[in-house]
Structure formats: structure tokens, C-alpha cells
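To whoever picks this up:

The nightly regression suite flagged Ferrous iron transport protein A as changed. Nothing in the input moved, so I suspect the structure step. Input below, exactly as stored in the fixture:
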Amino acid sequence: MIKLSSLTIGKSAVIREFAKSDLHIKLMEMGCVPGETVKVEKIAPLGDPICIIVAGYNLSLRKTEADHIWVEEVAV
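Regenerated output under the current build:
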């Protein structure tokens, strides 16, 4: 498993778990739930924020937020 923040543009992964923090509730409310597939759509020039596609919509996350999401990369 790797952190969502380490995926590159165009890569897809399945959310597996969250790091221990209160942030996981906020992330789940935004559609980032375990078992959901995410795809990295864009990364800002300085690497923060990143834009992902999750649950059928675009979501921008700060790199510190994406660091709390552990994913398993999937082959496309």
C-alpha cells in the first residue's frame, strides 16, 4: 500500500484505509471511502493540491490530506 499523495497523474488506486486522525471523517463525507476507486487527474505545479476523481466527481485535496489515505494501485 502507498499514500494517495504519491500517485502520479493518470494512475488509479483503490482506497484501503486511513491514517489515524480525525480527518478520516471529513474524507469519508467527501466520498473517499474504503473500497472506492480514485484516479489522479491533475497535480498543481508545486505539487499541492492534487485533483482526484472519486465517486464520479472531481475533488481537490491538499497533499497533507492525501497523506492520510492509503491506497492500493490498480492496473488499468
